[in-house]
Write a structure and sequence with these properties.
This protein is an alpha+beta fold. Helices cover 37% and strands 18% of the residues. It has 2 domains: 103 residues, Winged helix-like DNA-binding domain superfamily/Winged helix DNA-binding domain (Arc Repressor Mutant, subunit A); 40 residues, no CATH class. The N and C termini lie far apart (39 Å).
Amino acid sequence: MSPNEAYPTRPSHFAHKFCRLLTKAAVAQRIGPEACWLLSVVVHQEDAVRYARPVDFFNEQLMPLCGFGGRSRLVTARQKAISAGWLEYTEGGKGRPGTYWVKVPPEYSQIADSACDESECRPESGREEQDAVPNPDGNRTATGRQPDGNRTATGRQTVTFQP
């Protein structure tokens, strides 16, 4: 199947929703800011072509757009995004650019598209389970203040939700 045939249908404003999810899920903390920025660049280029197809880049073309001073930084960031399930990439070849599009890993697909600013992180704001971010250990991380109003040392609080 060609990349164009496999490219998913995107809803309106997908790039904005995707970047809010990256923020809410603390993806930069998990895969690094360079990989997270790569995802942001790719999804906004998808938006620029109106989600009609995957976007394509030669490495040398994509590196300055993401601020990568060397090819190895691009390759490392790209591999982190792929391994974490956030990026689909088809390698190019001589005279043929690679193709890219972002993905939402299944464990993040049910997170509500809502704000995660300070007012949304307070326990009294009515945060629901779907607003919390899954951790690899099955717990969910809620950013912001603890129930006593204080921040944790890392600014995050781990909460286990019972089904």
